[in-house]
Amino acid sequence: MSSGENGDREQEYVTRLYARLDALRGETRNRLDQVLASTGLGHQGLAERDVTAAELAGRVARLDSVENGLCFGRLDMCDGERRYIGRIGILDDTVDYEPLLIDWRAPAARPFYVATAVSTENARRRRHIRTEGRKVTGVRDEEFDRGAAELTGDPALFDALNAARTGRMADIVATIQAEQDEIIRAHHAGVLVVQGGPGTGKTAVALHRAAYLLYTRRERLARSVVLVVGPNATFLRYIGDVLPSLGETGVLLATVGELFPGVRADLVEPPETAELKGRLAMAEVIAAAVLDRQRVPDEGGCLAIEHDGETVSLDRETCLRVRAKAREADLPHNEAHPHFRRLLIDELARASAARYGTDPLSGGSLLTEADLEIIAAELRANPEVAAAAEAMWPLLTPRRLLAELYASPRRLAAAAPDLTPAERAALFRGAHRGWSPADVPLLDEAAELLGVDDRADRAAAAAEHEGRLVLAQEALDVAHGSRSTDFDDGEESELLTARDLLDAEALAERYQEADHRSPAERAAADRTWAFGHVVVDEAQELSPMAWRLLMRRCPARSMTIVGDIAQTGELGGAPSWDRMLGPHVGNRFRLAELTVNYRLPAEIAELAAAVLRRIDASRTAPRAVRAAGVAPWRQPVPADELALAAARLAARERAGAGAGRIAVIAPAGRLAALGAAVGAAAPDRVDVLDPRAAKGLEYDTVIVVDPDGIVAESPRGLNDLYVALTRPTQRLAVLHDAARRPAPPLDAL
Ligand SMILES: Nc1ncnc2c1ncn2[C@@H]1O[C@H](COP(=O)(O)OP(=O)(O)OP(=O)(O)O)[C@@H](O)[C@H]1O
Question: What is the pTM of this model?
Answer without folding.
Answer: 0.85
